[in-house]
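Please review this pair:
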Amino acid sequence: MHAPVHPPARLAVNGAVLLADRSGVAVVESCGTLIVADLHLEKGSAFAARGVPLPPYDTRATIRRLAETVARLAPSRVVALGDSFHDLGADGRMHEADADALAALVGAVPEWIWIEGNHDPEPPARFGGRTLPELALGPLLLRHEPAAGAAPGEVAGHLHPCAKVSAGGRTVRRRCFLSDGARLILPAFGAYAGGLNACDAAYENCFPARPDAWMVGRDRVYRVPGRRLLAD
């Protein structure tokens, strides 16, 4: 039997309603916008070039999973929140089959926007879409890196949040969305992106108090109050 698939979790950010999907993307239903953060395409090949032996399949796995998510959610716009490519040489290292798959994915969506990241301030143009430093979307401001003291409505990536909790006699650590109702940080989507614990001091510049986490499970997203989150 297949496990039941639950609907995305709903969360409010600065008055806007977003859906936190089990894939790790967020959706603004009112304007058909899918938001994804930190693909880090070609991270595996970047590490291999420095002598760190990682299987070179992260790009293919990430594109395939994103394509499946886009097909399932059918957005009219995709916004990739920066660090979509692990570095400025990622384009040149990408296998042509993966490059073709990425171009086809971008071309299949009516509007695709690359937000500039610190790893990829100039995303390669050959895949299509357009590049912006940030994007205002109603009461939301979409950018790559959270800004200290930013106004409410900021939606960002960059920090790769993960949440750790104790439940049922065991400890679970998973990617998560973090929000206090005013701002939102998305989990990293990339296969090799890794994660930073939600209790880390790096988040203190983003939230005045520990935010709640929406943990990404196998078939659903679970909301966890900030007081229950554990440090590593």
